[in-house]
From TrEMBL:
Pfam families: ASCH. This is ASCH domain-containing protein. It comes from the Bacteria. Signal peptide: none annotated. It comes from Paenibacillus melissococcoides. Residues 5-80 form the ASCH domain. InterPro entries: ASCH_domain, PUA-like_sf.
Length: 154
């Protein structure tokens, strides 16, 4: 299964279903299953800002108890959108050179949880399932192959 390493708290926000798009500086052609790996780094400052703090707290998380160095969720990538901003400053997600635009606007919370600058990409994640227990794994840069044995965690 393909995997992506994401620093905390963003990996946990995906696992909780609070974040649907993973924003990156690069597009991906991968579609299908994806493991969300929480890297060892935690952005403690982000954890203290809203809406991060409230969403994490609602699920019992703080910067001190976020899982690291482990796969925390599995999901599916169904699309990759190019990010731009309209004249009003709203986020616009498009593809095919602007011929196809995503009809549903992203919410303010989703926007707060991503980096939606012109020229970046938003990976559309669905069927997000938080694992009952994080599975320790060593992460890598970019998309990488995660091997695992199916057990009670998956």
């Amino acid at each position: 299964m393909k995997a992506i390493t994401i620093i905390q708290p963003w990996a946990t926000l995906i696992a909780l279903g609070a974040k649907q798009f993973e924003t990156r500086s690069w597009a991906t052609k991968h579609r299908g299953d994806l493991a969300i790996h929480a890297g060892k780094q935690i952005d403690r400052e982000a954890c203290e800002q809203e809406p991060f703090r409230s969403v994490l707290a609602r699920h019992g998380y703080t910067a001190d108890n976020l899982p690291t160095g482990a796969v925390v969720a599995v999901c599916r990538i169904v699309d990759c959108w190019e990010v731009s901003r309209c004249l009003r400053g709203d986020v616009v997600l498009e593809k095919d050179g602007g011929n196809t635009m995503r009809e549903d606007p992203i919410g303010k919370q989703e926007e707060a949880f991503g980096w939606y600058d012109d020229g970046r990409y938003a990976w559309d994640l669905i069927q997000i399932r938080q694992l009952p227990k994080p599975i320790p794994a060593k992460g890598q840069q970019g998309l990488w192959n995660w091997s695992y044995e199916r057990n009670e965690n998956c």
